[in-house]
Amino acid sequence: MEKSDSKISKNEAPEYRLLDPFIGKWNTVGSIKTDQGKPDIEIQGTDTYEWVAGGAFVLHTVNVMIGSDRKESIEVIGFDTRSNRYPMHSYGNSGEMAEMYAEFSNGRIHFLSENLRFTGSFSDDQKILSGIWEQRKEGDWKPFMDIKLSKS
Questions:
Q1: Every domain of the chain and the residues it spans
Q2: Global pTM?
């Protein structure tokens, strides 16, 4: 995959500008919620977002420790004019694959799949991205993970 200038998309469509705040390297911290009585599992590492393929897509690279387990993954984010959403396709170091969609509304960011969803936002200076992941269990959405990314 040919990389473009990783900080700037060559595509000037306004839909792509919504992805600009993600671009860069982030220090990531958070915690996964566990059953009552057990301590949360800590998350620490980095997330990197960069424009690729001439600015048509964002490549998101994850390298974090979740407790004592390393999690590495890549994700490709684009824009689909038919659905007016941002498809997200990810691939992890355990061989897992996932598909989600991103949507932006009222200053909030939403990542959605059948069983996971994220709601978050950027700080005013766009140097912090924080939010909450929820997981669908038995038909209900339950808190799953808190996450905070700080631009390095």
A1: 14-151
A2: 0.90
Question: Which residue type, as a one-letter code, is found at position 47?
Answer: D
Q: Is the pLDDT of residue 11 over 80?
A: no
The amino acid at residue 70 is R
Closest C-alpha to 5, from 26, 23, 18: 23
d(CA 152, CA 140): 36
Total Cβ atoms within 10 A of residue 43: 19
Least confident of 5-9, 41-45, 132-136, 138-142: 5-9
Give the C-alpha separation, 115 to 69, whole Å. Answer: 22
The CATH number of the domain covering residues in 14-151: 2.40.128.20
Q: What percent of the chain has pLDDT over 90?
A: 78
